[in-house]
Amino acid sequence: MNNIKLLTGTSHPQLARNIAELLRMDLTPVEWIRFSNDNLFCRIGESIRETDVFIIQTSRPPVNDILMELYLLIDAAKYASAGRITAVLPYYPYVRSDKKDQPRIPVTARLIADQLVAAGAHHVVTMDLHSPQTLGFFRIPADHLYAAPVIVDYFRKRALKNYVIIAPDAGGVARARFYAQRLSLPMAIIDKRRDPKLGREVEITYIIGDIKGKDALIIDDEITTGNTVFQSAEALLKDGAASVSACCIHGVLQGDAISRFKKSKLKELTITDTVPHDKKNLPKNLTTLSIAPLLAEAIRRIHEGESLSAMFI
Ligand code: R5P
């Protein structure tokens, strides 16, 4: 491909390298300096004038530094006369702060959309948003990709029998239904309630659907503390499920989530590589599926002006 450049910050170098390799390109070098006053500085190492620039930056801690890197890269690309600047955000920062559901709170996911446009992004690509409406925060072209082709393919190859797909909350019903249909499996729904003041505390009230004697597979957009899936697993087993596994697209796995997973009742956990982890620290029953081929293909299609929807049929 001609006239295209791939850049990245420090959020997920391995993912960016994998995408570049699949596209048979080199990453454009970027120099980063943190000054003694903690100010951040970057310099793009070669000309990107009039080129189609893709900046790959996923959300991971420290999320605010990662965001600042992204704004600086977009600004640097703008002043370097890039032809078009596309921000590629596999895991969108502050994705769950997408609504004003309490008094006097910000809608941070929208604020970030505004900031990306103000910095100079012409186009945004992201993946498996918590709520698809978040895409509407952008007044520039924005593409919402799904890890579904990779995940469905993985589970189809395992020819799941006696399984039931579980939506861990009302908000996840459409996603769970999609996977249940693609995998030709029944589904059930958990009525999950959180204490809004505590945030991470989860209270499971009802399980709607037939799970007795079945192997339950929870499908969720992300696993952060793990409270949702760990407590869901306990509730499902208590109600008669034969086993419980989970597939969470964004494996944030914050704090002690990995050691809690090892002690949890979950049989297996499947995530994707939208968020980086040191593979050495991951247990054997945690599988990471790569979305690099999907992102590489999306970048190729955007650059060549081809449809993306054909990737998700
Ligand atoms: C919440 O509505 C989301 O869909 C996930 O269930 C949630 O973000 C998972 O977070 P945690 O692992 O901290 O329970």
The Cα radius of gyration reads 20 Å
Second CATH tier, the architecture of the largest domain: 3-Layer(aba) Sandwich
Bound molecules: ribose-5-phosphate
Please state the average pLDDT score.
95
The geometry reads as: globular
Low-confidence stretches: none
Number of domains: 2
Give the H and E element order: EHEEEHEHEEHEHEEEHEHEEH
Largest sheet: spatial strand order: 10-9-8-11-12-13-14
Structure notes:
It is a single chain. The chain is of the alpha/beta class and 313 residues long. It folds into two domains: 4-146 and 292-311, 3-Layer(aba) Sandwich (Rossmann fold); 148-289, Rossmann fold (3-Layer(aba) Sandwich), CATH 3.40.50.2020. Helices cover 29% and strands 26% of the residues. It has eight helices and 14 strands. It has helices at 13-22, 63-79, 108-119, 148-157, 173-182, 227-238, 257-263, 292-304, and strands at 4-8, 30-34, 40-44, 52-56, 84-89, 123-127, 142-145, 163-167, 187-194, 202-208, 215-223, 243-251, 269-272, 286-289. Helix 1 crosses helix 8. The longest helix is centred in the first third of the chain and has 17 residues, at 63-79. The chain is globular, with a radius of gyration of 20 Å. The structure holds ribose-5-phosphate. Ribose-5-phosphate binds at residues 96, 130, 168-169, 171-172, 200, 202, 220-228.
